[in-house]
Amino acid sequence: MKLKTEIVCILISACLACSEQVKQKPGAGMSKPTADTIRGKPPSHFQDTLIVTGPAAVFYYPDSLQDHNIQMITDPGVYNSSIHEMFYQMRNAKIVLHKYYPSLSIREARNVRYLWFKGTDRKSQYIDLNTKNDARGMFIFDGKQAPVLVDMTNIETALGFYFKK
After folding, report:
1. Number of neighbouring beta carbons within 10 Å of residue 70
2. 114 beta partners
3. DSSP codes, 79-91
4. pTM listed for this prediction
C-alpha cells in the first residue's frame, strides 16, 4: 500500500513540475512582423487586366511597389530564398513547356491586377491576383476548361492532368 502511495505522489509531482509556466516580461519575444505572421500579400497598385484568349501558360509577378512592400514585411533571408526558389521553379517550368508543349503560348503578367481568361465556348473567367496569396505563380489554360493555378514543383504532373495528352 505504501508503494502505491509513493508512486501516486511521484506521478502528481511530475505532472505539476511539467505544467509550470514560464512568465515573460511584457513585450518580450515580440519582433518585427514576418510573412508567417501576416496573412495575405500587399495589394497591387495597378488595375490593368491581361486578356488571355487561347491556350497559354501565364506567369504572374508582383508590381515593383507591391514587391517592395512584400520585402519590407518579410525577413531578408526568407525573401531572398523565396525569390531564388521561384526563379528556378519558373525557369524549370518554361523548359518543360518548351519541350513538351511547344504550341502553348507563354505569357508574362507584370503590372496587372486581373487576368481575364476568354474560353472558346464564350465562357470567361476573371482572376483577381490580389486574392492569390502567392506573389508569383503560374496559371495554365487550354481555352476550354477553367484556368488552373499550378504548383510549379510538380509541373509535369499538373500539365499531364490538365491537358490529358
Report:
1. 19
2. 49, 128
3. HHHHHHHHHHHHH
4. 0.72
Domain extent for 133: 49-163
Instruction: Name beta bridge partners: 117.
Output: 52, 125
Domain count, the chain: 1
Indicate the residue type of 131: T
- Length of the chain equals 165
Specify if 89 maps to a domain. Answer: yes
Domain at 61, CATH number: 3.40.30
Q: Is residue 137 part of a domain?
A: yes
Q: How many CB atoms lie within 10 A of CB 165?
A: 7
Half-sphere exposure of 142 (CA within 13 A, CB side): 12
Asked if residue 159 is part of any domain, the answer here is yes
pLDDT tens track for 60-101: 999 888 889 889 999 999 999 999 999 999 999 999 999 999
How far does CA 36 lie from the centroid of its chain?
12
